[in-house]
Structure formats: C-alpha cells, structure tokens
C-alpha cells in the first residue's frame, strides 16, 4: 500500500490555501478533489452533496468521468454512497463491486476501480454529503487513512454548511440549508415566527486548520485538564451535599473525561493538523451522528453525556464569554434547546421571545408551565432540534398544530404569517371586549376569572379585563425554585400577588404537590399510583408544618385585605374541617402576636375527587365556596390518566355521566347558597363553558388566552335557551352519549362563536 506523500498535515495546509483562493465555489471544489486524491494516493476522489430533495449528487470528481458531475444522482439510500450517508459511518472496501449495495453508474466510468473508501460529510450529527476515494487495485485502506479522510471531510462540511455550494446543483439546494418540518407536542399555545437562538449556542469553529500543531496539542491538553479538575471539584462538592443520583451522574461524566478512546481520537485529530477546537468538533460530530441514530435510550443518554463533555472542552478552548449570555437576545427570538429548566427560561427577556422549541419536556413540565404563563408558543419532542438548525435560521413554532418549521419555504412562511395576522385580528376583537361585562343576551351575569401561578400572570388581569384570579396555583413557586421557598419568600410572593391584583379578588390554593407535581428538592416517593397517592391536602394534613408555614405566610401577606383560600383534592368533608381548624389555629396565633388579620377570610374546597359528589350537601354547607377542578374530576370520574395521551381524550366532559356530575354540583351549591366556580380547563373552552352555563354555573376561572373567546360566547347566548336544550338532550340521551354534537349544532344555528 503506498504511503501518503505529505500526510494529512500537508494536505490540510494545501486545503487552507485552496480555501483562500479567490475562485468560484465549483473551481475550489474541483481543486480540492485533486489535492485529496494526490495526497492519499488514489486515482479517484469524488464529492457527493446531499440535496434538499434527499438526492445525492456528484458535485466534483478527480478520476471519474467529469461529464458525470451534476448529472450522477442517486437516492439518499442508494448505492455505497447512500449507505454511508444513511449510517453516517465510514466504509472501506478492497473490492467495492462485490458489495451488495454497489450500484453501477456507467456515465462515471467506475468499472475500472476496485478499492473504495467513503466517509460522511457531517455537521452536528447531520449528513450533508459523502466524500469518496477509489483505487484500481484491491488495496486495503488503513485506520490512519480513514481517520485522515474524515478530518479532511470537515473542510468540505464547513464549505457546504456555509452555504457556499448553494446554487451549484442546477435544480435544488443543498440539504444543509433545506427546509425541515417536524411534528412534536404542543407545550404552549400560539404561533411564533422568528429566528433561531440556541440556548446552548454551538460554537462555530472558524479556524479548522492549525498553524502550529504543537501549540494546538498543548491547548487541547490544558482544556481537558481544566474540565477534569472542574468535574473533580463538582464530584467532591456532590459528595457533601448531593443525592446518590446526582453523584452517580457526575461519576459517569468523570469516567468519560478519562475515556481513552475519546481522548485518543481528539489527539489524533490535532496530530493530523486540525486546531484543538476543530479536533473536538470532529470527534463530537461522529458522536452526534451515532446519538441521532441510537434507539436505546440508555446508550443515547450516555452519548448525550459525552456530547456535554465535548461542549465543556470546547468552552474551555474558546473562552466562556464567546458563548453568549441570556438576555442578549435579538428581536423575534425563538429559543431552541435540548431541554431547559423553568428558571433558565425566566432569565431571557420575555419581550423578545417569540417561541420555544425543545427536544425534551412534556406539557406538564415546569418549563411548559412557565412558557404558558409568559404566553410564549412552545413545542417539544422535536428530536435533535438543536442540531437541525443554526443560530439565525428562520423558524416557525406552531403551537396549535404542534409543528416546527426550520428554514421554511416562502409558501409556508406566507401561510403562517397570514395565520398570525388572523389571530392578531381576533385578539384585537377580544381586546375590544375587555371592558364589556360578560352578560348573556337574557341578562345573566357570568364571572370570568384568571388561572395564575406566577407573578408574571398577574399582568393578564388588566390585559384581559378578568374580574379576579379564580385559581392561584401556589405550587408553581415551589416547582420553579431550586430549594424549598422560605416562609418569607412565600409571604413576599403572596403580598406581591395581592398588591398586583388591587381590588380584584384572588383565590389562592394551598400547595397541590405530589402526583405529577414533583419538587426537585423533596425526596421522591416511590408510589405505584402517584395520582392516587400522597398528595395535595393529604400531605398538608399529615405534615401540618408545611401547610402551617404556608397559611401563616398567606394570612400575614393579606395584611387586612380580604382573602380566599382553597384546598386541593379534598375527598371527605372531614379533611376540609381539619384543614379549617389549622387555619383557625394560625389565625389565633397571629392575633395573639398582634398581626392584622384579613377582613374577610373565606375557605373553599375544590371538588375534584368524585367522593365529594356524594357529600355535596355537607361540603356545600361547611365550605364558604366550592371550585370544580374538572381536570382531576374527569380523571377520577372516568379513571383516565390526564397525562396519558393514549387515554386522556377518551371520554368527553360533555357526556351524560360528566354532565350529571356537573349539574349536581351546580344545583346543590345553589341550594346551599354556596358559590361555585369552575377552574379546570373545561371552563376555558367556549362550547364546554356554554354547556356549563346551561347547567347553572355562573363563575369560571381559566387561562388568560381563553377569557376573550369565552366572553364572546357569553355575549351571544341566551342562558335559558341553552338550559332548555340541555334539559331536553339529557332527558333523551342514552348513557355514554355526548351532548357535544347537539350543542355545536345549536351554537352554529345561532351564530355563537365557539
Ligand atoms: C383541576 O384539577 O381541574 C385543577 C384546576 O387543578 P390542577 O389542574 O392544578 O390539578
Ligand atoms: Mg387538580
């Protein structure tokens, strides 16, 4: 086997010169293939570029028939080149023609060649094309040669990614800049058009080829050493205060930092003439390609760990300041991240954020809750999102249909822009209704209140014209914090909430944790059925210290103002009575210590456990008010997990069984003179809310975006006519049927906006 005359270092130097020449992109590419062929002593060197229509096209060749350039094309999974593109792994064969995937292209004159080596052109784990060399003999390519060709491939990847080759194919663009549409899960409703801002920006390595390899090796070693010491320090700190779980994670990272294979490959890449940054990226790119294709979640997590580690080394090399800080956002920013905590999202300037795209995170994740509170459209479960786009790429987040469009084509962009205009017009119409009281055409007044959980939500009170806060979920403060909020912090938040809402009433719910609402700093309980487990008021009654601290903070924060407190997940009247006794005790304590108590302190129970339906008269007598938590009530009534997408929408809250339950609460509440509000999602959906008005409900609490649509519905109905329709329909319904079609037809016939 002939040895390469100059070795990879010389080749890289030549390539650097070629890159600097003021020639056309095609001429540069033609020059590059000649240089590579000469350096690795091959008769053939060819570059295939993946186009945006998923076709691999021959862009340049030395050795094959030049007429075939821009003519030879194959599907992305066709032939040996397609195989390399698909697997994103190098392929070396001493006799290519014997390989089952070999596909013969007569126009290239390939029949004369036997040995074949191809490597993928990768960037951030994505295949952009394939680089091949071929020989007439049946030669065996060495590991070093494969490695050297991969290093060389980086230069070509950068050329493609920079957009330089865009337009060289006569009828398509390159895949590197292609439009991508991916479907995910909606975390927060809305549509956002803007430009990609990577939450953890990928560092763009500008200088690939080293001037001085010895110096680059020292830089790499120093960076690795610094990362190792930082991890050691973390492990040591973790030993003192971390959980067993976090220690385990850190130990794994430490193990990787000493991984011989990983270190050797980076050192080899520097040895072959790359800068330290380029060497890290070169190895990281292979790793990412494997990560994208890895289906085993455990192995994928480990590759993620390795990727994180490479990021750390990279940051050491380029300096932390080059990474960019939250807050320095361009206008119309759409954040793209693998995952994100709620606090990190709050660090960004919300006025400039138009959307959020995540690889991981469900609708109940804390970051989703914060995105909703901030009104930022968000979509998650977009696999490999951070690698699919570059900073500054145009992107659309469709938080209605659950899609993300990266580098959208003009038609897609125009249709979304139109959708945004329509939505804005509708919002304007709703805004015009802001100060119009929500009264039905037959004079029934409906109270529309807000659901909130963070201080930022309170801004929506003025914006929407809501009458007050019908449900303030106090657990959010606990969920977004790094540690248990102190009594003083709780009191400060409640005070701020009461101040921000001025004269408008606020109903504050005591901590509803457990189930799916886990606090990161509380020991996690292993429960078979967490939704049915130790949660909400059950924790409050069993560990009264937590509840007492919260109640005391609330009472102190009220400072003479009226206060409405409600308890979540009440299953028996006795639980409510016991909770009330704790409030009474706290009041007495504060009174003794000279605090001003609320002028009016009302205590309510949430109706979300079906057992309360069978004690409805008693609870309506005991409580000052009731609030229907329909999200949980439906979950328990129909035995469907509200977070399980497979079953969550299986039963209709407008079916007879549910409607009977709702009617019972409305009627018995009214009979006992006990005000009832509906604060689950159902109250925010115009058609469903219309049904509830027909059943007798007069107060609803909902997300800010729902106030306008629900008010528009209220203004156009006659409550008595809806009630009549419901009476008739329920009388003749068979069990299991839903009233939805009849209600929808009714709304349509009368022009009710739903
Ligand atoms: C409900 O269950 O309907 C409710 C309002 O409470 P949460 O969604 O917070 O459980
Ligand atoms: Mg609930």
From TrEMBL:
Pfam families: GAF, PEP-utilisers_N, PEP-utilizers, PEP-utilizers_C. Its EC number is 2.7.3.9. GO terms for biological process: phosphoenolpyruvate-dependent sugar phosphotransferase system. SMART domains: GAF (SM00065). Residues 24-170 form the GAF domain. It catalyses: L-histidyl-[protein] + phosphoenolpyruvate = N(pros)-phospho-L-histidyl-[protein] + pyruvate. GO terms for cellular component: cytoplasm. Keywords: Coiled coil, Cytoplasm, Kinase, Magnesium, Metal-binding, Phosphotransferase system, Pyruvate, Sugar transport, Transferase, Transport. PROSITE patterns: PEP_ENZYMES_2. Residues 210-237 form a coiled coil. GO terms for molecular function: kinase activity; metal ion binding; phosphoenolpyruvate-protein phosphotransferase activity. It is an enzyme of class 2 (transferase). It is found in: Cytoplasm. Its cofactor is Mg(2+). InterPro entries: GAF, GAF-like_dom_sf, PEP-util_enz_mobile_dom, PEP-utilizing_PTS_enzyme, PEP_util_C, PEP_util_CS, Phosphohistidine_dom_sf, PTS_EI-like. Belongs to the PEP-utilizing enzyme family. This is phosphoenolpyruvate--protein phosphotransferase. The gene is ptsP.
């Amino acid at each position: 086997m002939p040895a390469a005359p100059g070795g990879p270092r010389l080749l890289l130097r030549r390539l650097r010169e070629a890159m600097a020449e003021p020639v056309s992109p095609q001429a540069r590419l033609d020059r590059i293939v000649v240089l590579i062929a000469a350096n690795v002593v091959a008769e053939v060197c060819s570059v295939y570029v993946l186009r945006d229509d998923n076709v691999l096209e021959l862009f340049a060749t030395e050795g094959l028939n030049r007429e075939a350039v821009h003519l030879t094309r194959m599907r992305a999974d066709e032939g040996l080149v397609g195989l390399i593109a698909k697997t994103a792994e190098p392929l070396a064969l001493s006799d290519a023609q014997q390989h089952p995937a070999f596909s013969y292209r007569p126009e290239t004159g390939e029949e004369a060649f036997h040995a074949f080596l191809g490597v993928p052109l990768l960037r951030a784990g994505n295949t952009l094309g394939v680089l091949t060399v071929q020989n007439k003999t049946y030669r065996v390519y060495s590991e070093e040669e494969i490695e050297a060709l991969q290093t060389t491939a980086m230069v070509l990847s950068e050329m493609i990614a920079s957009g330089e080759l865009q337009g060289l194919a006569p009828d398509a663009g390159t895949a590197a800049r292609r439009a991508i549409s991916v479907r995910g899960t909606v975390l927060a409703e809305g549509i956002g058009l803007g430009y990609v801002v990577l939450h953890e920006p990928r560092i763009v390595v500008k200088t690939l080829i080293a001037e001085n390899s010895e110096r680059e090796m020292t830089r790499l070693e120093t960076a690795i050493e610094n990362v190792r010491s930082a991890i050691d320090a973390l492990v040591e700190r973790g030993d003192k205060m971390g959980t067993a779980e976090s220690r385990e994670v850190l130990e794994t990272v430490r193990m990787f930092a000493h991984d011989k294979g990983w270190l050797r490959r980076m050192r080899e890449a520097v040895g072959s003439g790359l800068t330290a940054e380029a060497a890290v990226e070169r190895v990281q790119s292979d790793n990412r390609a494997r990560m994208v294709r890895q289906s085993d979640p455990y192995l994928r997590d480990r590759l993620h760990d390795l990727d994180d580690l490479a990021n750390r080394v990279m940051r050491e090399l380029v300096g932390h300041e080059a990474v960019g800080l939250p807050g320095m956002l361009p206008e119309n920013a759409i954040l793209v991240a693998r995952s994100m905590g709620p606090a990190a999202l709050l660090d960004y300037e919300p006025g400039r954020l138009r959307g959020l795209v995540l690889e991981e995170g469900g609708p109940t994740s804390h970051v989703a809750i914060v995105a909703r509170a901030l009104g930022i459209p968000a979509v998650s479960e977009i696999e490999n999102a951070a690698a699919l786009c570059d900073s500054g790429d145009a992107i659309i987040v469709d938080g209605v249909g659950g899609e993300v469009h990266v580098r959208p084509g003009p038609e897609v962009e125009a249709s979304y822009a139109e959708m945004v205009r329509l939505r804005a017009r509708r919002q304007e119409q709703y805004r015009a209704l802001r100060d119009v009281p929500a009264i039905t055409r037959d004079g029934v007044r409906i109270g529309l209140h807000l659901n909130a959980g963070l201080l930022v939500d309170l801004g929506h009170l003025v914006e929407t014209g809501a009458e007050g806060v019908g449900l303030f979920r106090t657990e959010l403060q606990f969920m977004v914090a790094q540690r248990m909020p102190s009594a003083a912090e709780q009191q400060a938040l409640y005070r701020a909430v009461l101040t921000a809402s001025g004269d408008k009433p606020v109903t504050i719910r005591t901590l509803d944790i457990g189930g799916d609402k886990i606090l990161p700093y509380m020991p996690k309980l292993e429960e078979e059925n967490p939704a049915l487990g130790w949660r909400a008021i059950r924790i409050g009654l069993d560990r009264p210290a937590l509840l007492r601290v919260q109640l005391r903070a609330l009472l102190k924060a009220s400072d003479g103002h009226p206060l409405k407190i409600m308890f979540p997940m009440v299953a028996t009247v006795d639980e409510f009575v016991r909770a009330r006794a704790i409030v009474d005790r706290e009041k007495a304590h504060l009174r003794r210590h000279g605090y001003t108590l609320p002028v009016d302190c009302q205590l309510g129970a949430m109706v979300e456990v079906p057992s309360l339906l069978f004690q409805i008269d008693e609870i309506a007598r005991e409580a000052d008010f009731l609030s229907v938590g329909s999200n949980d009530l439906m979950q328990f009534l129909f035995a469907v997990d509200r977070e399980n997408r497979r079953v969550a929408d299986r039963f209709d809250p407008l079916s007879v069984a549910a409607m009977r339950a709702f009617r019972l609460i409305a009627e018995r509440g009214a009979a006992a003179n006990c005000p009832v509000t509906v604060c689950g999602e159902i109250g925010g959906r115009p058609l469903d809310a219309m049904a509830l008005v027909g059943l007798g409900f007069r107060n609803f609490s909902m997300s800010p975006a729902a106030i306008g649509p629900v008010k528009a519905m209220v203004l156009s109905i006659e409550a008595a006519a809806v009630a009549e329709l419901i009476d008739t329909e329920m009388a003749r319904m068979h069990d299991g049927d839903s009233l939805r079609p009849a209600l929808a037809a009714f709304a349509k016939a009368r022009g009710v906006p739903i």
